[in-house]
């Protein structure tokens, strides 16, 4: 098959591109950075250098593809994520329609269908734009929170052996690792599906206490302190996030404090349960900690 991928050699793509090439698929990888071209070509894929916001570039790159993989990329903390998602939804849907592509795998997010999910509800703009395409089969992959977001805790662990979170230590949250997402992307790209569908991806269900215990097994003794959402908002403002994004993340934190509704659709679905458990990620986390 001829497969075209957004996302360059990011932390999801890098795990399944070699499998596609080994199986003989013709793979084109889109990247906004020209210095990635040599690395992409070395893997055996074609490099297409351009912007995911350039409609004509996407149309020309998508033409002739059996399937394309879409994802959000290129945004900054200062941008309004909801507005950016609306723009990308329009660009992606037009590129797919005009290029004649009939199969799309779209990396979305948990919360895309939950209005109360704050910043993550932005993904519904892209899903709805793609769902409006007639005669195009679309699978939306909705991963939960990335384990790698926990790397943001490294600084406070280094400074005070403390994790600061706006969610109670006994609240169960769903986490996922990029390799588990990559498995689902690979399957979706290479297997047939029809119409419009959703696939959730989870690696593990974890409380704050589970995370503390996992870190202890790799030699890190830390404490968990719940902080007010307003404290998180202030930190984000100081880091340069736009007010709209601050508000969106604050709302996401609120819904995660009582996440039953947030996770309802996942638990009612045939979600993909991956292999990377919290104990596995703790081993990855400690290596990052030791190298800083």
TrEMBL record:
<dbReference type="InterPro" id="IPR036291">
    <property type="entry name" value="NAD(P)-bd_dom_sf"/>
</dbReference>
<feature type="domain" description="NAD(P)-binding">
    <location>
        <begin position="7"/>
        <end position="117"/>
    </location>
</feature>
<dbReference type="InterPro" id="IPR051604">
    <property type="entry name" value="Ergot_Alk_Oxidoreductase"/>
</dbReference>
<dbReference type="InterPro" id="IPR016040">
    <property type="entry name" value="NAD(P)-bd_dom"/>
</dbReference>
<dbReference type="Pfam" id="PF13460">
    <property type="entry name" value="NAD_binding_10"/>
</dbReference>
<protein>
    <submittedName>
        <fullName>Nucleoside-diphosphate sugar epimerase</fullName>
    </submittedName>
</protein>
